[in-house]
Design goal:
138 residues; alpha/beta; six-stranded parallel sheet; 6 helices; globular; disordered C terminus
Length: 138
């Protein structure tokens, strides 16, 4: 079974991770706060973004701010310390392009990175059910 990593398990990230779990993927996750809800849906908590990078074939990040993105990639326990050949890292946030471009050199040249911002979500109260039905737009 392919292992997927997910950094950022908030209002958008958690339903996306849940959809991956329901589709049969082993999902490692990291969030700076409690991950009880993630564990309840079958997710496997990680101690840091670097742990996710070390254990996942594909990594998604879905973070609320540019500062959070920089910490997750370049911080002391960031993805940059664990990127490896063949790994794909997908950034889902709608952060400014210069912020995302600053992250590219920091990542291992042997991994592949791409930006795929989530846009035009339905109203927040319907977000979870929409993600579960696969209607997320990127």
């Amino acid at each position: 079974m392919e292992t997927v990593g997910f950094v950022g398990l908030g209002k958008i990230g958690l339903p996306l991770a849940q959809n991956l779990i329901a589709s049969g993927y082993r999902v490692l996750g990291f969030r700076r706060s409690a991950m009880d809800e993630f564990e309840k849906i079958g997710g496997i908590p990680a101690r840091s973004p670097a742990d996710i990078g070390a254990g996942a074939d594909m990594v998604f990040s879905c973070l609320p701010s540019s500062a959070a993105l920089e910490e997750v990639v370049q911080g002391p326990k960031g993805l940059v310390h664990a990127a490896r050949p063949g790994q794909v890292i997908v950034e889902l946030g709608s952060h400014p392009v210069p912020v995302k471009e600053r992250q590219m050199p920091a990542r291992s040249s042997s991994s592949t990175t791409c930006s795929s911002p989530c846009t035009s979500p339905p109203p927040p109260r319907r977000w979870r059910s929409a993600c579960g039905q696969g209607s997320t737009s990127t």
